[in-house]
């Protein structure tokens, strides 16, 4: 069997978690002994990861040809909200569209039990499975050399406390909370990796970025290698997003052995636990309190447990679980 992974919209999603998920599927299947291709095939299953019109048309064509369609449910109405200007107004229409798209699949795969529950509540009629997007634990791993590269590149002293995050400049990613943390913790350096044109973001996000204190830096979008170095070189990864379907960057950070602080939201239930493999808080006051304790050693290190969590979602382990879904659904 050869699996086609549709990449028609890759240029549009390459810098997002969906783009990384597409790359992960290719690697996890190959590590599980399943051949993949980006070319159109006359037979065999096809993976679809986006909800752009071209993907929906491709799904319909594949079904007409008698091919099995595996539709990945990366997007929900909930994580579409509070993103770009007008997203809240369009959210109900977006929900109807993604429901139509996902129902074109013979099977729907979404990263977590939380997102599975959301999709089933939309009225998805096809079997829905929760399966992590996985993490490349060979690439994302602790490295002293990577730490040194990061510290040198950004001219950071070895004893300088550094807090990082990553994502688009969108409200639900927690960027305003991140900037406020920097304002309340002037003794630390805060660095946000990622970029979105400011004319696409709400006024509150634009204002937060433009008025950020001097200890808060925005170097923009960086390569996966540079981001890996940042994970290895930082003292804390603060991902304050209020809505996710999984959060690939959280897995990347855990795999690199950096202490992780996240907002306490439903998507993490079942695989992250406060005080066990990560720390959680609900608001800026809590973030600052937990971050302070993590950075000065008052809170115990959880990095070993975090790395084990990432290892359980390795490419090989996830590929084997995907093969099991194939077998169960006769794909």
What's this, in brief?
Helices cover 43% and strands 14% of the residues.
Description:
- With 331 residues, the protein is an alpha/beta fold.
- It has 2 domains: 2-134 and 314-328, Glycogen Phosphorylase B (Rossmann fold); 144-311, Glycogen Phosphorylase B (Rossmann fold, 3-Layer(aba) Sandwich).
- It contains 14 helices and 12 strands.
- β5 (107-110), α6 (113-121) and β6 form a beta-alpha-beta unit.
- The longest helix is centred in the first third of the chain and has 16 residues, at 87-102.
- The chain starts with a strand and ends with a helix.
- 45% of the residues are buried.
- The mean pLDDT is 95.
Major sheet strand order: 2-1-3-4-5-6
**Largest sheet geometry:** 6 strands, parallel
Class of the largest domain in CATH?
A: Alpha Beta
The portion of residues forming beta strands comes to 5-15%
Order of helices and strands: EHHEEHEHHEHEHEHEHEHEHEEHHH
CATH topology of the largest domain: Rossmann fold
Question: Could you say what the CATH architecture of the largest domain is?
Answer: 3-Layer(aba) Sandwich
Query: What's the gyration radius in Å?
Result: 20 Å
- Residue windows where pLDDT falls under 50 for at least 5 positions: none
Question: In CATH, what is the homologous superfamily of the largest domain?
Answer: Glycogen Phosphorylase B
As for the number of domains, it is 2
Number of strands: 12
Shape: globular
Helix and strand content put the structural class at alpha/beta
- The overall average pLDDT, rounded, is 95
What percent of the residues sit in helical stretches (DSSP H or I)?
40-55%
Cα(first) to Cα(last) distance is: 9 Å
